[in-house]
Amino acid sequence: MGYLVSFVLLVVYVGGVWRFLSGYRHTNFNRSLATRISLALLWPGLLLVNPSYRKNFQKALKGR
User: Fewer CB within 10 A of the terminal residue: the chain, N end or C end?
Assistant: First the structure.
């Protein structure tokens, strides 16, 4: 059962990274590769604590 939960969390995390990177051009963030990678990898924590990031994350997911 623990493996299933871990697998689901991993899929959600990787899916969030993929979706964020796919729509990154719609955000207000710096376009550098280092910024893109760091913001994509830290998305769960930033989503919880940063309202500006939350708004830009939604822009990336919606694609506008």
Answer: N
Position of tokens 């769960």? 44
Report d(CA 54, CA 48) in Å as an integer. Answer: 8
Per-domain boundaries in the chain: 2-62
Contacts of 62 (CB under 8 A, 6+ apart): 23, 26
DSSP sequence for 23-62: TGGGSSS---HHHHHHHHHTHHHHHHH-HHHHHHHHHHHH
For the stretch 16-51, pLDDT in tens is 999 999 999 999 999 999 999 999 999 999 999 999
